Amino acid sequence: MNPPPSQVGLIGLGAMGLGMAGSLRRAGMAPRVFDLRPQVAADFARDGGQACASAAELAAASDVVVSVVVNAAQTEDLLFGRGAVAQAMRPGSVFVMCSTVDPHWSAALEEKLQALGLLYLDAPISGGAAKAASGQMTMMTAGSAAAYAKCQPALDAMAANVYKLGERAGAGSKVKVINQLLAGVHIAAAAEAMALGLREGVDAAALYEVITHSAGNSWMFENRMAHVLAGDYTPLSAVDIFVKDLGLVLDLARASKFPLPLSATAHQMFMQASSAGHAKEDDSAVIKIFPGIELPKGKAP
């Protein structure tokens, strides 16, 4: 007889988590969900799945707990603090950690959970809210064969690309940190290029059209400078996300005394934008640090 399918729970219904929960539901997994905003979880569950009153309630009823919170501090609080998830999880169940974190912290978390009889998958994610909603995102994973065996159907439902990068936690997070190096530098470079064009009196829409059909294009230029053209800084990924993520990049490199001059400059650009009051705006708002330019008008942040 085939074993019963794993019961899956997902914690954190933000821009990425909400789409991931929807992908699990489309795959017939009827996920349990929890969010600090109860109405968000209740709204999701109206179309299938179950909203839980607490993270611990979700964990106690799930074989696979997918965590889509912001950072390591929130993950620690979820597991061992106010969330009490580690205490509530059944032995042999798996905790899937999707946040961007210090790889060494992720490796240490695996050991802590193993001591409690729990499995762990280091599984940061990439692709944006649209790909999360369509089940087409990328997951950079590392963990034991037992962890994969338990949660593989859930991974396949949530992601088009599930990269298995090692048998020990930390390897997935290292690759994600390197991805964030490129993402942050590309956004900063895209903003600098658009700012120079505006300063020189180039029509912003024309510049966007030309660059997105030329060798200088990048996915980040095409995606984020569209936000600038629309004057819409509603956060899909906020400025402070890259203050955090490029900080992780620099911390990782600093530990081995490895120079990252472009990453350091991009980090300072996001720090400047954050300290200027744009911390919670879309990360394309890093363009607002450049003086003497008139940005396209549109929706207020």
Tell me what you see in this structure:
This protein has 301 residues and is an alpha/beta fold. It folds into 2 domains: 8-169, NAD(P)-binding Rossmann-like Domain (Rossmann fold, 3-Layer(aba) Sandwich); 174-289, N-(1-d-carboxylethyl)-l-norvaline Dehydrogenase, domain 2. Helices cover 52% and strands 12% of the residues. The protein contains 13 helices and 9 strands. The chain has helices at residues 15-26, 38-45, 55-60, 72-80, 85-88, 103-115, 128-134, 145-158, 171-199, 204-211, 219-230, 239-255, 261-278; strands at residues 8-11, 32-34, 50-51, 64-67, 94-97, 119-122, 125-126, 137-143, 159-164. Strands 1, 2, 3, 4, 5, 6, 7, 8 and 9 form a 9-stranded mixed sheet that branches. Strand 8, helix 8 and strand 9 (159-164) form a beta-alpha-beta unit. Helix 9 (171-199) crosses helix 13. It is globular and about 65 Å long. It starts with 7 loop residues before the first strand and ends in a 23-residue tail after the last helix. 45% of the residues are buried. The mean pLDDT is 96.
